[in-house]
Write a structure and sequence with these properties.
single chain; alpha/beta; 6-stranded mixed beta sheet; 33% helix; globular; disordered C terminus
Length: 236
Amino acid sequence: MPTLILVRHGRSTANTAGVLAGRTPGVALDERGAEQAAALPGRLAALPIAAVVSSPLQRCRETLRPLLDARPDLPLHTEERISECDYGDWAGRKLAELADEPLMTVVQQHPSSAAFPGGESMRAMQARAVDAVREWNARIEAEHGENAVYVMCSHGDIIKSLVADALGMHLDLFQRVHADPCSVTAIRYTRLRPFLLRLGDTGDLAPLAPREPAPDEGGTADGEADAAVGGGAGAP
């Protein structure tokens, strides 16, 4: 099954201002975010990317623009289910102000029970994102083969919730996961289980390129080796 390269959008004007952007329109990359996006094609240069999937929000589309300009043959798909969490009435408010809301304690300590006023629950957010990834995995494999690599540009809470799912973690633990703006989180999916290869990586990504296992490694090229210790998964 495919390897998913999750890219969090670059630093945005809302990040700089300390605002919970949510789905507020017009939130763009700031100067630093534009620099991060410009560096992304070089960081991904060694990877044979089959397709790119994006949240519909502006800051994700801006993050991907340099990559798509560098690889004009790459198909771009928009996926509503990996859009930012619908924070409802909280969207556009200062994070410092929201820190005093009783619900913020629930969001941090028991997110599986958190639902945003006028928005969605965090459980619903995770469910839609996981469903989207599973369906895209099947589509990418059918169209490009089981060793395909594809990029998905999304948002911090979405990426954290996907990591929690991949690791078999309860959603209540997902706040222990962190992904910086324009960082890469890589998950290799197999028929047995997912493997987290990178988390919030801002460095060299060349080792994520697919490789055939050596004859003495056993397993298959997509990492279904029966290994419980020592790394396993045919992972670099």
